[in-house]
Amino acid sequence: MHTRSKVLLGHALTEEADAAAEIKNEKPVLAVIGNPPYSGHSANKSKTDLGDLTFIGKLLEDYKKVDGEKLGERNPKWLQDDYVKFIRFAEWRVAQTGHGIVAFISNHGYVDNPTFRGMRRHLMETFDELWILDLHGNSRKKETAPDGGKDENVFDIQQGVAILLAVKKNVGARHASPNTPNTNEGKACLAPTIHHADVWGLREQKYFYLLENDVQSTAWKTLEPSSPSYLFIEQDNTLRAEYEKYFSITEIFPVNSVGVATARDAFTIGLSENEVWERIQDFVFLTEEAAREKYHLGKDARDWKVLLAQNDVKNSGPNKANLCKILYRPFDERYTYYTGNSRGFHCMPRSKVMRHMLEGENWGLMTIRNVEIGKGFDHVFAVENIVQLHTVSNKEVNYLFPLYLYPSETTQDQTGSLTFDEIKREPNINPAFTKVLSERIGKTPTPEEIFCYIYAVFHAPWYREKYAEFLRLDFPRVPLPEDKSTFERYCQIGRKLVALHLMEVGAHGNAPNGFPPTARGNDDEGTLPCAPALHRFEGDGDNVVEKIDYKTITNAKNGDVYINKTQYFENVSTVAWNFAIGGYQPAQKWLKDRKNRQLDFDDITHYQQMINALDATAELMGEL
Fold it and tell me: What is the mean pLDDT of residues 113-123?
């Protein structure tokens, strides 16, 4: 390019930039339109290197509050997504003008995710009218059309998308610079009109719909979002009011946490104690790069580094006492080396909560906050050990609610010994819930009875169906029983379910360490939840899991589960084979995770008992 041409081009670009800056800074902006980027790891920082909030960081603080209170989110990282920042900036910019329109097509996560309830409330305060056209297509949630047909995205992305039209009417336009304090947000629009519509189906169908329709021709439904969630989706408001009167599981068990985040599951978790211990003893004496290469650890992450993991193990001994069980998946108990130190051998060990599962006998309830994949809520499981971040579902973050809390420090007697019975543990149960429940049933229930009642409720088909739309969006809530007899019946069934899922075995009578009887049936029944297996392991071979195949037999209600060409577990029901707990089907998942491994006697027995437990679970759920 000639020098003169370069000068002219440079001059033109400068003029355009100056004109754009003048409009942005001095002229009233009446419309902000776009398709902002979707990036959870935003390049538009909310904090400076010194930790001070940036301009957009300050604006986002408004989305971290709802009804004047902080969200209370442990990790509101989704609010840092670029598309959220673009919406927040557009909202601010129109508010500075005093009136205008925001028109974005973006990720649809803000429509119903609980983390965005502050954002939804703030949009309601700023704008007079909101139109949300949800185009769905979220392959991460495995969305399907209401008729069961395929639902495709309008773009080549995994996140579902929605069109947002937000209108702020003129209440006195004012010109301002970006540094002018915000005075028009959250004042004029306290009762906005909110419209919502869904578009499902194949991509071409959605394109055709968008070409043929506009705001006037779309069949909108008017929403009335309310506290505390302010959801931008259609709901049964009467049923929602009923459901929201119940205690949330987070209110009942106030001490809770997400599961252990290892950052390197394949390395930090093993199928046996010896496997983990041998790995630890080897790992700690290797050089940093030798360990990285040998164990395929990849590049260091922000919160997990090979050297930090090695130092954590060295500083702890290594000590064989740190080996412990961890429930990796439903019915899949494994082992790990647990120091409890963050950014060590484990990335985030969540020791403030997990220690209660290590310091004595305990039960824990695992569940999720919102359903992201699957057709409904079945994300619940009883545990007695520490748990992994995705124990009941690989997509959703999993939460652990321990039944008992152990003191951070224990006092030894004069001999220096301390037995389990001498440790004073306290129930992790909100006294307010116990009081309300006691008044309803006419007695004060034990912590175990409360746990078992809740566990049964969460497994009840009527509960999962009736409150499906709410269970998809936030932590499950617990309805009170109608009367004492209902409570006792649910307690009994819940206790049987707990016994099944913990795979308790043994004679009738008292369970270990002060827990109540397992309620496995009366003496006349004489049955155990994990009775001797009915599903014999047949065929000659080396017991190595190769190609897994379920072959139904004549009545199609049962089949044989082949682990290779010649060996199989016989007479496994289709109910057990397909039974889902959260994001997993345990009868299938357990075998898939052991592909190319040889099953020993304990493995075979465990699988047989697991099939029994799944069949019994389905039968008990039918009684609720």
Answer: 92
Write the single-letter amino acid at 473. L
Residues 176 and 172: their CA atoms lie apart, in Å, by: 13
Nearest in space to 198 (alpha carbons), one of 112, 261, 274: 112
Work out the angle at residue 619's Cα, subtended by the Cα atoms of residues 479 and 382, and round it to the nearest 5 degrees: 55
Nearest partner of 292 among 275, 271, 267, judged by Cα? 267
Confidence of residue 425 (pLDDT cuts 50, 70, 90): very high
Residue 456 and residue 463: Cα distance in Å, rounded?
Answer: 10
> The tokens of 254 are what?
């106030």
Work out the mean pLDDT of the chain and round it to a whole number: 86
Token digits for 209?
């719909």
Reported pTM: 0.77
* 539 burial via Cβ count (<10 Å: 0-12, 13-18, 19+): middle
Give mean pLDDT, residues 45-51: 84
**CA-CA distances (angstroms) from residue 434 to 48, 356, 405?**
47, 21, 16
pLDDT at residue 515 is higher than 60: no
d(CA 38, CA 288): 36
Q: Tell the burial category of 584 from Cβ atoms under 10 Å away from its Cβ (0-12, 13-18, 19+).
A: buried
pLDDT in tens, 385-411: 999 999 998 878 899 999 999 997 654
pLDDT at 5 exceeding the cut of 60: no
**Alpha helices, DSSP H, located in 547-600:** 574-578, 586-592
Q: What distance lies between CA 6 and its chain's CA centroid?
A: 55
Q: What is the band of 9 on the pLDDT scale with cuts at 50, 70, 90?
A: low
Cα distance between residue 289 and residue 291, in whole Å = 5
**At 117, which amino acid appears?**
R
CA distance to 152, 327, 372, 549, 577, per residue, from 557 (Å) = 34, 30, 30, 15, 10
Phi, psi of 125 (to 5 degrees): -75, -30
In the predicted structure, residue 195 carries a pLDDT above the cut 90? yes
The span from the CA of 90 to the CA of 107, in Å, is 15
248 phi and psi, to 5 degrees? -75, 155
Closest to 325 (Cα-Cα) out of 335, 315, 317:
335
Query: What is the three-class DSSP state of 73?
Result: coil
- Cis check for the bond before 447: say yes or no (omega within 30 of 0): no
Q: Which two tokens stand for residue 86?
A: 């673009």
DSSP-derived secondary structure letter, 533? P
Token representation of residue 526: 């004489």
CA dihedral 343, 344, 349, 350 (to 10 degrees): -50
Q: What SS3 state is found at 18?
A: helix
**pLDDT score of 180 more than 70:** no
d(CA 90, CA 29) in angstroms, rounded, equals: 10
CB 510 within 8 A of CB 517: yes
Angle between helices 447-459 and 601-621 (to 10 degrees): 80
* The pLDDT of residue 307 is above 90: yes
Q: What pLDDT, on a 0 to 100 scale, did the predictor assign at position 589?
A: 96
Q: With CA atoms as reference, report the closest residue to 168 among 242, 92, 231.
A: 92
Residue 586 backbone phi and psi in degrees, to 5: -55, -40
Q: What average pLDDT does the segment 498-519 reach?
A: 56
Which helix (H) or strand (E) element contains residue 455?
helix 447-459
Tell me what pLDDT residue 278 has. Answer: 97
539 Cβ neighbours under 8 A, 6+ residues apart: 566, 567, 568
